[in-house]
């Protein structure tokens, strides 16, 4: 059946959608559908084609374009590992599977645990260093502070730092020697060339000297006030002052 152009032109959007759905369903031949609806077969074929193209576009995989390029480094992977565990509450095995499936990087559960422990140690180490700084500031400002308190804070910092240094020398530095390439060592060296160690600057050294002198003066005053104090106790206190010096050997 041939319909007049006015019939097709006057079809509403809903009518066109209906014709397209009926045409795609293939429930009846196009010729029968055209006769029943009073439109031409060309109109039905056109609606069917437009509907098919719309469906293909709706269900096709779309490429929205690259948002950004991300350089994946060892440091970035370590950050990702920590974020997955601490932020996303992922399990060690979940992190292992993600790194394996997305980045083709094999990693053991033990390595993941060691990375988490290392991050925790650095965080707690920063807090211990802050406590030492506060204790030194209290001593230099002549604020009331027990010698035992200063002793415990500094001794705790020294013991934890020695254990951390031992761990790095045992595990971290040998691993770095195995995996880092010459160009990576050169980059590390270039970044450290102009940097000074903040723990061994002249200002910090003067502060340590002032603290040592102050503690020794406190010991001498205590000795004068308590004549019965044993020489062994005094020697132990002086040994601690010397061990707290940044120039003393570990």
Description:
- The protein has 250 residues and is mostly helical.
- It folds into four domains: 5-55; 74-103; 108-195; 196-250, no CATH class.
- The protein is built from eleven helices and no strands.
- The radius of gyration is 38 Å and the shape is rod-shaped.
- The relative contact order is 0.05.
Topology:
Layout lengths: L4 H5 L3 H13 L4 H8 L3 H19 L14 H13 L5 H12 L5 H32 L6 H33 L2 H11 L9 H24 L5 H13 L7
Features:
250 residues; mainly alpha; 4 domains; 11 helices; rod-shaped
Low-confidence stretches: none
The 3D shape can be described as: rod-shaped
Distance between the termini: 101 Å
From the alpha-carbon coordinates, what is the Rg to the nearest angstrom? Answer: 38 Å
Structural class: mainly alpha
Mean pLDDT: 77
Number of helices: 11
| Largest sheet, strands/sense/barrel | none
Strand content: under 5%
Q: What number of structural domains do the residues give? A: 4
| Number of separate strands | 0
Residue share in helix? over 70%
Order of helices and strands: HHHHHHHHHHH
Would you summarize the structure shown here?
The chain is mainly alpha-helical and about 250 residues long.
């Amino acid at each position: 059946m041939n319909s007049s152009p006015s019939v097709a032109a006057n079809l509403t959007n809903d009518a066109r959608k209906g014709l397209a759905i009926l045409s795609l369903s293939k429930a009846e031949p196009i010729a029968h559908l055209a006769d029943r609806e009073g439109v031409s077969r060309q109109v039905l074929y056109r609606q069917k084609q437009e509907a098919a193209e719309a469906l293909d576009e709706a269900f096709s995989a779309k490429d929205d374009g690259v948002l950004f390029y991300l350089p994946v480094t060892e440091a970035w992977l370590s950050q990702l590992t920590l974020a997955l565990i601490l932020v996303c509450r992922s399990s060690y095995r979940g992190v292992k599977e993600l790194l394996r499936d997305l980045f083709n990087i094999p990693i053991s559960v033990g390595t993941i645990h060691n990375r988490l422990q290392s991050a925790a140690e650095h965080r707690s180490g920063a807090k211990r260093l802050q406590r030492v700084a506060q204790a030194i500031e209290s001593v230099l400002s002549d604020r009331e502070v027990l010698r035992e308190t200063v002793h415990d804070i500094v001794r705790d910092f020294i013991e934890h730092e020695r254990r951390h240094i031992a761990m790095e020398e045992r595990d971290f530095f040998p691993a770095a020697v195995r995996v880092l390439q010459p160009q990576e060592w050169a980059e590390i060296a270039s970044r450290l060339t102009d940097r000074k160690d903040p723990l061994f600057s002249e200002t910090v050294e003067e502060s340590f000297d002032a603290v040592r002198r102050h503690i020794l003066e406190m010991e001498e005053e205590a000795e004068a006030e308590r004549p019965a104090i044993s020489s062994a106790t005094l020697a132990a206190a002086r040994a601690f002052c010397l061990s707290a010096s940044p120039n003393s050997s570990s």
